[in-house]
Specification:
The structure holds two protein chains of two kinds. Chain A contains 13 helices and twelve strands. By secondary structure, chain A is of the alpha+beta class. Chain A has two domains: about 10-60, 2-Layer Sandwich (Uridine Diphospho-n-acetylenolpyruvylglucosamine Reductase, domain 2); about 70-225 and about 235-330, Uridine Diphospho-n-acetylenolpyruvylglucosamine Reductase, domain 3. A five-stranded antiparallel beta sheet of chain A has the order 4-5-8-6-7. In chain A, β11 (about 260-270) and β12 (about 275-280) form a beta hairpin. In chain A, α5 packs antiparallel against α9 (about 170-180) and α12 packs antiparallel against α13. By secondary structure, chain B is mostly helical. Helix content of chain B is about 60%, strand content about 5%. In chain B, α3 (about 70-90) packs antiparallel against α4 (about 105-125) and α4 crosses α6. The relative contact order of chain B is 0.17. Classes of the chains: A alpha+beta, B mainly alpha. The interface of A and B includes residues 134, 141 and 204 of A.
């Protein structure tokens, strides 16, 4: 079980200065190595002695991983770029405001100054049974403590649960998927580019991981194409404390409306499942429809098809329905009956 | 490095949670080693037992094709085989690195296997010669004789088989144990996942009981890796192809029957 301690456990610390050195270390130490970005997720795990890596590779000195670069009308954001830098970047605000809103809604200003976009999309689940050190499915065991008749599971999944009911807590992830971002991953064998939508994996695929990253892999950058630049965006996050909290749920949409009708749309919800959910069925249903309250209503109802509440998270179903409704119809429709 | 992984329950009790998954490789390597050793044994060491002592008049009474497996028995076998392969693939491929959503396919295959086993138990109990697949006294005596003769010692020649050879019967015995272990534990484990059949209830048993159930399921499962490898190997061996074909077409040729089977212990029918 978890024992809270104020001091860090012993591990071998590496602070490489280049991506090549990082990959060499990651390859050399394999499963024993822990990649640390901003450290905000990492320090909890290490100080609680729940994750006990022999080696920590601190990425803070790798300058190649930082910064926002313009690329073919889109952007390439280094994985170690802080959430504050992303949220404040002029081009991000101008062309991809959904991402700046998403990044700005994460945590607190201090955490955003230290936390990185790569860390935000790669962070682990917040389920307290898992983070408390219980040997649940996600930790390699044979039970989900959050999905029992007596479990406290207010923040957990209503969709796509497969033994584990933890959710993905990222605020930037849905925005990136809505923008058709691509994740650039490198390892000793080379580079591969994965659609943001495919970067996140659910428990049905691998119950112990939240992303496709495996030992030896490094997320180096996130590429955002020009496809959705300057279109109509919607991002909303619902949380218990407005000042600083993980999402109970968030929604992000990018949309092109022509002559009052929805021409193109991508809509993504997070914290409803173990991975951000792109609502392809909703997109198909609203494409070609007028952007109005009726379409939003239909989209909201469609979005929650198949939702299965746990003991304490039934509220997430109307929450998701309403968030999707707003995301499709826009803020001006918020005051519907 | 143990063969079982343990965890601490919320009540501070150390409980088993499942087998160590390196046992997958142990089972696969053990199965492969058996195949190689057996192939070498048969090719270079073993003495072939030949029975050509059947009388022509006895042969004349035997039909050209002797019925060995009824259609129902063959259908059961192939349904079970497909379910078993699906279970092994869905259980172990994700563990060795090929990730896919396996749980639903796994329990569906498990239900097919369970249903086929239930059918087989009823079918074998009431429509087949139930005892023909279980080793009897003669099988054990002949097994000893074969072993002694194969290892160069003196022993009387073994008699011909009844319907099933001794190794067939022993294999069936082991597969019954492994199969019942995985299916019984598997049915209970379905209470831990979401299915249309049960309301999830992970508190049906204590953590210790669940843990032991997972361990038994795992041990029987990895055991089946080796058993299935061995089964397929024997099915493909040239001298066993007649038996394999009988699982497709239902019959064995008269010559094979007369050479290997004792009409007193297994009466030939069309």
């Amino acid at each position: 079980m978890a024992i809270i301690r104020d001091i860090m456990p012993a591990f071998e610390l590496f602070q490489p200065a280049t991506i090549d050195d990082t990959l060499r270390l990651a390859d050399q130490h394999g499963k024993d190595a822990w990649m640390m970005a901003g450290g905000l997720d990492t320090f909890d795990w290490l100080k609680d002695r729940i994750k006990r890596p022999k080696v920590v590779i601190d990425l803070s000195q790798v300058s190649e991983l930082r910064g926002v670069r313009e690329m073919n009308g889109g952007l390439e954001i280094g994985a170690m770029t802080t959430l504050t830098e992303v949220a404040r970047h002029l081009v991000v605000r101008e062309k991809f405001s959904i991402l700046s809103t998403g990044a700005e809604s994460a945590a607190s200003p201090q955490i955003r100054n230290q936390g990185t976009i790569g860390g935000n999309v790669s962070q682990d689940a917040r389920c307290w049974y898992y983070r408390g050190g219980w040997k649940c499915y996600r930790a390699g065991g044979n039970i989900c403590f959050a999905d029992t008749p007596t479990a406290i599971n207010r923040e957990h999944a209503i969709l796509h649960a497969d033994r584990c009911v933890a959710v993905n807590p990222s605020d930037s992830a849905p925005a990136l998927i809505a923008l058709e971002a691509q994740m650039v991953i490198r390892n000793k064998q080379g580079e591969r580019v994965v659609n943001a939508e495919d970067y996140f994996i659910g428990p049905s695929i691998d119950i112990t991981r939240m992303t496709v990253l495996k030992p030896g892999d490094l997320l180096t950058a996130i590429r955002i194409p020009a496809t959705w630049a300057g279109t109509q965006f919607y991002f909303e996050k619902v949380r218990d404390r407005q000042v600083w909290d993980f999402p109970l749920m968030n929604v992000a949409s990018a949309m092109v409306v022509t002559d009052g009708k929805i021409d193109r749309i991508r809509i993504v919800v997070n914290a409803a499942a173990a991975h951000p959910l792109r609502l392809a069925a909703v997109e198909d249903a609203v494409r070609g429809q007028p952007r109005n309250a009726a379409t939003g209503e239909m989209a909201g109802k469609l979005a929650i098809t198949g939702a299965e509440p746990l003991r304490y998270n039934g509220y997430k179903i109307p929450l998701m329905r309403n968030l999707v409704k707003r995301a499709v119809s826009g803020v001006e429709e918020v005051k519907w009956a | 490095m143990g063969v079982i992984e343990f965890a601490t329950s919320p009540w501070g009790q150390t409980v088993p949670i499942h087998i160590a998954f390196y046992l997958i490789w142990v089972a696969a390597i053990a199965g492969l080693a058996f195949l190689v050793c057996h192939a070498i044994w048969v090719a270079f060491i073993a003495r072939k037992e030949v029975h050509v002592d059947f009388a022509p008049e006895a042969a004349a009474r035997v039909p050209e094709k002797v019925a060995r497996h009824s259609l129902a028995a063959r259908l059961f076998h192939w349904v079970m085989a497909v379910a078993m392969l699906a279970l092994l693939i869905t259980a172990f491929l994700p563990k060795v690195g090929y990730q896919f959503p396996w749980v639903t396919y796994h329990w569906i295959s498990g239900l097919v296997l369970t249903a086929s086993i239930l059918f087989h138990i009823i079918h074998a109990s009431f429509w087949m010669d139930f005892w023909s697949i279980w080793p009897d006294k003669i099988d054990i005596e002949d097994g000893k004789r074969r072993w002694l003769r194969a290892t160069g010692k003196t022993a009387p020649a073994p008699r011909k088989f009844a319907k099933y050879p001794m190794e067939n019967k022993m294999y069936h015995l082991v597969i019954v144990l492994a199969g019942l272990s995985v299916t019984l534990t598997g049915v209970f484990m379905m209470k831990r996942v979401r299915t249309p059949f049960f309301t999830r209830n992970p508190y049906l048993f204590s953590d210790m009981t669940w843990g032991l159930m997972y361990v038994l399921h795992g041990l029987a499962g990895v055991g089946l890796i080796a058993l299935i490898m061995v089964h397929i190997y024997f099915a493909l061996r040239p001298e066993k192809l007649v038996i394999t074909k009988s699982m497709v077409f239902g019959t064995i040729p008269r010559e094979h029957y007369l050479e290997h089977h004792d009409p007193e212990r297994w009466a030939a029918t069309k």
